[in-house]
Amino acid sequence: MGWEQARSRAYAVGLAAALPTVDVLLADADGHTLAEPLAPRTDLPAFTTSSVDGWAVRGPGPWRIVGRVLAGTTPAPLTEDGTTVEIATGAMVPPGASAVLRVEESTRTPEGFVDGVPRPAPEWRLPGEEAAAGEELLPVGTPVDPSVIGLAASCGHDTLRVRAQPRAALLVFGDELLTAGPPADGRIRDALGPAVPGWLRRYGCQVRTTDVVGPVADTLPAHEAALRSALVEVDLVCTTGGTMRGPVDHLHPALAALGADYVVNTVAVRPGFPMLLARVIGPDGRSRFVAGLPGNPQSAVIALVSLVAPLLAGLAGRPMPVLPHAMLAEPIPGRGNHTHLALVRLDRVAGTAHPVRHVGSAMLRGLSGADGFAVIAPGSSGAAGDRVPVVPLPLLPGERTW
């Protein structure tokens, strides 16, 4: 399957299986996704508020001081010309006030009056100046980050209606893997077990320590049992390795035993082509998913950005991720009829993408210094100066994309 088609299909099946909506406290909403539009419960501001420290005055000056208004109080009206109340920034402007005089532009007369010339423009914020009650400020599908939480609080909300966060598990396949110490005696260190949960969390997934299992023995019964057990608890199971059909690659027969149907089975992309995404219908009738990540580390990350990221966007009810573009600073070769995802470092000031070194599918050195993957379309190559899509590596929940 072509890379663009695989990405679109992963998103579509995720959106069709979007998770239920729940109400969460604002303090717990970071990383979720709005399931209903965010609108203020009152006008913003809800009442006329002073935008400066100074004096709320009525009529021409000088003005006799008749009180003080602090934020959080309801002032009495100013009923007589020539009177004033001291007012703090953010405090409610008393009814009857004709202007607010800045404190730094005021003087006290020997008789104890306040004098000065208010500026022509009002020094207050009117009700509804920022937003009207019920006005849609953010649409369904907006990721919730600290700025959204702050806005929701200012709108008068104590909770938000959001999509439940997907929960994921990771099954690490491979008898050759070590979970501690340096590689030796034909065995290599597992790099994906410690790393993949962090990527998944950056896509808004919940991954518990107990949801990371492995290495799972290279037998079909062990693979099938591990998958069955994980699928009881989570929405998505990611596996590492075993996506080909070698003598100890048991993922495909295990999926067949589970009655899974393939959403995507191999993708015309390099590196990482033997990735897959399968769907399993649970006893409750709800779809759960298995993402088969290749065993080579960089290929596994390419599978994450290609299939898992759009799937999770759909499950969360978010829009399909739109890829930014950057100008290639150097040529990047194509990969024949396959899409080439090439690791790049971004110069955000110049808007350019620079290829990095050490980018073999089994290497992680280049990945550690990269910002994403430049997309070189099938049948083409990237020349210096070309503008190409870039698949960003995932950020922490709430961080703004470049």
Amino- and carboxy-terminal Cα gap: 29 Å
Report the strand count.
24
- The CATH topology assignment of the largest domain is Molybdenum Cofactor Biosythetic Enzyme, Chain A
CATH superfamily descriptor of the largest domain: MoaB/Mog-like domain
> How many structural domains?
4
Q: Which percent range describes the beta-strand content?
A: 25-35%
Per DSSP, the total helix count is 7
Largest sheet report: 6 strands, mixed
Radius of gyration: 29 Å
Mean pLDDT: 92
Low-confidence stretches: none
Shape: elongated
Helical proportion, percent range: 10-25%
Strand order of the largest sheet: 14-11-15-19-18-16
Please give the CATH architecture of the largest domain. Answer: 3-Layer(aba) Sandwich
Structural class: alpha/beta
CATH classification, class level of the largest domain:
Alpha Beta
Can I get a quick summary?
This protein has helices at residues 3-16, 146-154, 192-202, 220-233, 251-257, 297-315, 365-368; strands at 21-25, 49-50, 54-58, 64-69, 83-87, 99-102, 106-108, 114-116, 124-125, 159-163, 168-173, 177-178, 188-189, 212-216, 236-240, 261-265, 269-270, 276-281, 287-293, 325-328, 339-347, 352-355, 372-376, 387-392. With 402 residues, it is of the alpha/beta class.
In words, what does this structure look like?
This protein is of the alpha/beta class and 402 residues long. It folds into four domains: 3-19 and 165-315, MoaB/Mog-like domain (Molybdenum Cofactor Biosythetic Enzyme, Chain A, 3-Layer(aba) Sandwich); 23-43 and 129-163, Molybdopterin biosynthesis moea protein, domain 2; 49-125, Molybdopterin biosynthesis moea protein, domain 3 (Molybdopterin biosynthesis moeA protein, domain 3, Beta Complex), CATH 2.170.190.11; 325-392, MoeA, C-terminal, domain IV (Beta-clip). The protein is built from seven helices and 24 strands. The strands form seven sheets. The protein has a six-stranded mixed β-sheet with strand order 14-11-15-19-18-16, with helices on both faces. A five-stranded mixed barrel has the order 20-22-21-23-24. The model has no long low-confidence stretch (mean pLDDT 92). Pathway: Cofactor biosynthesis; molybdopterin biosynthesis.
